[in-house]
Amino acid sequence: MDLGSISEILLNLINEMTVMVTVIAILVSSLNNFKELVVERKFTYKNQIIMMVIFGAFSIFGSYSGTKLDSGAIANLRDTGPLIAGLIGGPIIGLGAGLIGGIARYLGGGFTALPCSIATISAGIIGGLVYNYNNREFLGPQKSIIIAVLVEIYHMGLTLILAKPYSEALEVVKIVALPMIISNAMAVAIFSVIISSLIQDKMKIKELEDNLAIISSNEEEKI
Predict the structure, then answer these.
(1) In this structure, CATH architecture of domain 3-222
(2) Looking at the chain, which runs of residues are DSSP E strands?
């Protein structure tokens, strides 16, 4: 195991993670579709498709901005987009984002294409199922980190099972497992903190708007 290569991959992924999480947070927080879906829980075809496309696009970005190994495998942040999509919007949005990222990865080829694409699609579904299990509410930072770690361990397991030859798959996992687990968990953690804060702020604003509407209605009745 080359500790130098592992450290280099980890640093590269952390740099990419910083860019990706920042852009996603700014983008979704400025969209009314995000407010409708996450805060108001109004699921429309439009806001679901928009979220699928946004997080699917970041899944693709997370894949191809990663570090390519000599074997052709890519150390990446691909699973983060679909996982977050599922955690904030449920299995349909998670699956949609996962399909976008997973199909793009599969078409990219390489001996890890099949397990990596399956893992990415699964990440969205898992996030969505967790969302449903949590009464259709965002899980929060601490539990989201645990889910992210488990998803990446699952990803590594799929690679060992499905990628051939096994000896090459094992070498890839030895190199990318730790960087991918850490960086994807960090990405989900930071995004979760941002999303939790945004949800609380938007809920406070919504509560204030509702109270103002009630006050206004009462004043009109008096008149």
Answers:
(1) Orthogonal Bundle (1.10)
(2) 67-68, 74-75
- Kindly report the pTM of this predicted structure: 0.88
Q: Cα separation of 94 and 88, whole Å?
A: 9
Element holding 195 (H helix, E strand): helix 166-222
Q: What is the DSSP letter of 68?
A: E
CA–CA dist 12, 39 (Å, integer): 34
Peptide bond before residue 165 is cis, with ω within 30 degrees of 0? yes
Cα angle 63, 160, 125 (rounded to 5 degrees) comes to 55
74-75 vs 67-68, strand pairing mode: antiparallel
DSSP 3-state of 60: helix
Q: What is the pLDDT of residue 131?
A: 95
At 101-115, the pLDDT tens digits run 999 999 998 899 999
